[in-house]
Amino acid sequence: MKAINYFFIMIFLGIYGIINFYIGFRTYKAFNYLSEGYGILYWGFFAILASSVFVVRIFNDFRGKVFYIFELISNYWLAIMVFSIVILVFYDTIGIIAKIFGLNEFWINPKITFLRLVVLICVLILIFVYGNINSKNIIISEYEIMTDKKLPLKELKIVLASDFHLGNIVNEKRLKIFVNKVNEINPDIVLLAGDIIDENHEIFVRLEMDKFFKEIKSKFGVFACLGNHEYFRKNTYEIEKSLERGNINVLRDEAVDIGDFLTVIGREDAVFNRFGGTRKTIGELLKDVDKNRFIVLLDHQPKEIEEAVKNGIDLQVSGHTHKGQFFPINLFTKRLFLKDYGYYGKDKYNLIVTSGFGTWGPPIRLGSISEIVVIKVKQK
What we know:
Elements: H1 2-31, H2 39-58, H3 65-100, H4 104-107, H5 110-135, E1 138-147, E2 155-161, H6 172-185, E3 189-193, H7 201-206, H8 210-213, E4 222-225, H9 236-245, E5 248-250, E6 254-258, E7 262-266, H10 282-285, E8 294-298, H11 305-310, E9 315-318, H12 329-336, E10 342-346, E11 349-353, E12 370-379
């Protein structure tokens, strides 16, 4: 298993290196128009940018404004890579067309090459400014589902949120906004569908973010499952305890009854098996559950949908996908998941996938929203 993991790591690093070299080389050719002889300086600076993604994860216990700025740069670099590739491939396509029509000399002119670089930088700046503003604009998305099962309430109002990725970037200020908005909604129950804390748990503790979760007001409490990022650093137990200090009921392959009408089930994330665990099947989790109750399944990733349908789950809530977070990643999430965002229904089964409250990596959203979901369950 370790050999396979190392193989995939080497493949990833190889692809990452090729992409960065391609971007670096194309940019260098454009800068070379202004001044030659700065190759070592340029490639040294470029290497720092390209390696920043790994450096901040290796030295993630560092603190202070310098590290925060470096982390921000590393996160934006991921987006720079994606959008640069898209734009440069677009440029290359135009270059091929220009060559076919005898316009190659014009297209490769150093001044035109530099102008293309200026356009690329301007486009990136516009994307980042808009994407950052959009990521902080919290949308309240509402769904209404009907059930044959008995509800003692006129309606059950559920608040769903996921993928906060709390840390240096999505910090306690954003969390406070979330809590205030949830309390304005006045829900009966709050469900958090994983990736609440980003990989660096120490930041969550140092900024005392648990105390903000304590301020959430709901009739039946706050329940959560864990997401893939809460397993990566093998500090899952510490993360679980931090969340519980914030009055969050963390369900790890567990079912809990609420009143005489509702059961909430929280699953271990799908990556749990990769870290030495074995997550239970939905059938195993339902073994002692009364099927006459309204059954809600918390599962971070929207997978195993047919199993949920077959086992009589009434409502599954998931996150994970971010709806791609920004173009063109959303093209991949649409193909990876049966439903990467929004509502899906089959028979009496209902699935709602949220695009998440926060962001991972670059704090931008393009073609997706940061949201809090309100689900109103009503009896037919």
